[in-house]
Design a protein that fits this description.
This protein has five helices and five strands; from the N terminus they run βαβαβαβαβα. The chain has 155 residues and is an alpha/beta fold. The protein has one domain: Rossmann fold (3-Layer(aba) Sandwich).
Amino acid sequence: MDMAKRRTATVLLVDDDPGDQELTRRALADGPVRCDLHVTSDGIQALDFMRHRGVYRMAPRPDIVLLDLNMPRMDGRRVLECVRNDPALCGIPVVVLTTSKQEEDIVRSYELGCNSFITKPVDMPQFVKAVADMGQYWFELVTLPYGVEASCAGA
């Protein structure tokens, strides 16, 4: 698809680590997909953003959420559970992007309904490549129902 004709993807990054936030920002900026990146640093802020509450009342609906698991106030597991149980949010793809390699985290994330689980590479070039590949997959290969609040089974 011609980049000039493609719409910009709205991405919500939920991560409390400023270094990882910056790496993700750079990786998406340098990748093949145009992204409008929004960042929250904990699960409560993320849910407020997605539900348009408080300072986020004018926030756009994310096309995808990149979610860290280990954060203060509300961790990513709880955020994922809330998103999947909310009829207005359950159709948003959620990619867990975390440093965890624990099998229990992987299994639990999929049980809670994540669409993908990516362990953050420690090496910066590999991290940038992983994020760019993820962006290319979700915004060039996969067809997403942009702007549509899908109904979800069990929600």
